[in-house]
Design brief:
The protein is an alpha+beta fold. It is 28% helix and 34% strand. It is built from 4 helices and 7 strands. A 7-stranded mixed beta sheet has the order 1-2-3-4-5-7-6, with helices on both faces. Helix 1 (11-24) packs across helix 2.
């Protein structure tokens, strides 16, 4: 698997990957599909985008991971988003992306990476735990567009923890 920085020309393929996940429902807090231009603004080169990496496997984009300052997080903190193609699924995308994201966080001088995960997203919760994120808060009963209330679990990763190594799959 090859990891590289995302570029604007990736936006169309990555928005299609993300929109498939949004339309399937049940894992992401995002509920409205994004156009390629919106995707680029949100994740690649917009005002809040800090870093975005893509995973390529057999000449196909199979996932991406981004760091963002959207929502005015505290100084030294950025939000992470991780998405992997659903069909066909490629094992290890998130684990392959995280070292590049962690390196970007270090370069940006971040203290923490924040992940906010739907409580019903079992695979997402497991992924972030495996990467070393620790739960620090729970947002109760956050409504989806259809009114369904779903808790959100907030996890954080300490970027400069002493002797920390990135877990492997």
């Amino acid at each position: 698997m090859h990891i590289r920085k995302a570029v604007s020309s990736d936006a169309e393929k990555l928005s299609a990957l993300l929109n498939e996940i949004i339309q399937a429902g049940g894992t992401t807090a995002l509920e409205t599909p994004l156009s390629a231009a919106e995707f680029a603004d949100w994740f690649i080169d917009g005002e809040f985008s800090l870093a975005c990496h893509v995973a390529e496997h057999k000449q196909a984009l199979v996932g991406f991971q981004s760091l963002s300052s959207y929502g005015d997080p505290p100084k030294g903190v950025a939000d992470i988003a991780t998405f992997a193609r659903m069909n066909p699924k490629t094992a290890g995308v998130g684990s392959a992306l995280f070292p590049a994201t962690r390196a970007a966080a270090e370069e940006l001088g971040l203290e923490f990476i924040n992940a906010t995960i739907r409580a019903d997203n079992v695979s997402g919760l497991g992924y972030y735990a495996k990467m070393g994120f620790e739960t620090y808060a729970r947002l109760a009963q956050v409504p989806l567009q259809d009114g369904t209330a779903v808790d959100r679990i907030k996890k954080r990763f300490s970027v400069n923890a002493m002797n920390r190594t990135t877990p492997h799959a």
